[in-house]
Amino acid sequence: MSTPALKIYNTLTRTKEEFRPIDPAHVRMYVCGPTVYDYAHIGNARPLIVFDVLFRLLRHLYGAEHVAYIRNITDVDDKINARAAERGISIRELTEETNKVFQEDVKALGCLEPTMQPRATEHIAQMIAIIEKLVASGHAYAADGHVLFDVPSMPSYGRLSRRSLDEMIAGARVDVAPYKRGDMDFVLWKPSKENEPGWDSPWGRGRPGWHIECSAMSAAHLGETFDIHGGGIDLVFPHHENEIAQSCCAFDREVMANYWMHNGFLQVEGEKMSKSLGNFVTIHELLHTEKFGGHRWGGPVLRLAMLMTHYRHPIDWTISRLNESRALLSKWGKLVSIGIKTHFDRDDEWWWSAAPSPLLQERLLDDLDTPGSVASLSSAYENAYSSHTPEAFRLLASDLCFLGVMDQESLAFWGVVEGGPLEGLLLGNINSLISDRNAARAAKNWAESDRIRDELAAMGIALKDNKDGTTTWEVKR
I want to staple 406 with a disulfide (CB 3.0 to 4.6 A). Which of 17, 21, 198, 400 is the partner? Predict the structure, then answer.
């Protein structure tokens, strides 16, 4: 049986291409993860959610056991050193604390755990080995305790970002140093001061540059060439461009990854997010404080709000967007709660291994069309509340589950757990109350008819009356 065609936009070619894995039995994806010196901001949440959706889709298409998703943790960096010194704590203490909060935040956003989350500090030997290869082949040189990549030694440098030399110099914020041969040359290894983390190397005690870390970790866990490399659009240059240079020159390969995917920028209420503007907001704050919009926003609300814009487009993060997301989830959740409590055991295997409906899969196969996917959820909702059939509830519930806005731990949000706001609200109860109301209306007992109508309204059920009595109902929108 053939695998449905997945099309993704490849930044490397600037075209939408059919995805053809190197080995369908071992599909490999690498996404740049956090530098754990501070809490992740809402812009950082976008690639986490986007590539989690892709991970879910690839697992569905090729089988969970055939997909490897690596998202690294950068735990050696100048920002980490500075923040630890500022707080008066050890670097290890800072990175452990920050990573713990990051993992909790990502889980709250409904993201599956990647196949592996390698740490940069666990791959120093691999980084040194790659740098030695680059020096031996003439693509890098040692100078004044540093090792730098010789950019002119790679004629195709700049192929990913497609920038002119002047644009690349400006974008890289070039450091002027007397030991550099060229302005664009970038650091692979640098010396460490006594109070900075460092490792022994052929060039003295030091630490790696930022770019070499991802080249080493991706090669160690996915191979010298793999299928998909992802991240935010801000990483195209210089980070991803430099990764390609290091990896291709060290391993003598034409490409590092066959497909490069990048999500668009995020702004807040129409402005670039910055601490100086007072609109810098972290995932943790959105989940646990009322800083943004006077509400604590649940993880499913944040996730759905992010999916309402296509991943390649810029996104404006607004309070109105979050309110819209919350209203949709509330509407869908009431109906799903009724369906689950009426027809299913919430521990049923189908529920937690849910496959997407044909319509949802079709949308996601088209370069992760999540706005179209949200529209398909609305269609599934319309079908479920008008038909009330087990299959309609199943389709809606499984699609919500597949997109990651519902799981076992978020059921309390939907009111499905025991003691939740919709406890006891069963389809049989609704139909029985409607039957009683029709009987009261037939007997012209208007007081009883109104009482039952109000009781149903309090449950969130809106009745549709006609000359023959109440024949249809729906969950209030």
Answer: 400
Residue 164 contacts residue 171 (beta carbons within 8 Å): no
What CATH class does 267-414 carry?
A: mainly alpha
Task: Summarize the confidence of residues 380-406 as an average pLDDT.
Answer: 88
Closest C-alpha among 166, 204, 107 to residue 408: 107
Alpha-carbon gap, residue 65 to 271, rounded angstroms: 42
Cα–Cα nearest to 197, from 7, 308, 37, 387: 37
Specify the 3-state DSSP secondary structure of 451: helix
Alpha-carbon separation of residue 203 from 143, 145, 147, 180, 372 (angstroms): 9, 6, 8, 16, 53
pTM for the predicted model, two decimal places: 0.86
Q: Indicate the CATH number for domain 17-263.
A: 3.40.50.620
Residue 98 identity: T
Domain range list for the chain: 17-263, 267-414, 427-475
Backbone angles phi, psi at 62, to 5 degrees: -115, -10
Q: Which two tokens stand for residue 273?
A: 């997010």
* C-alpha to C-alpha distance for 192 and 18, rounded to whole angstroms: 45
Q: State how far the Cα of 301 lies from the Cα of 326, in Å rounded to an integer.
A: 5
Residues 123 and 213 sit within 8 Å (Cβ to Cβ): yes
Instruction: Report cis status (omega within 30 of 0) of the bond before 208.
Output: no
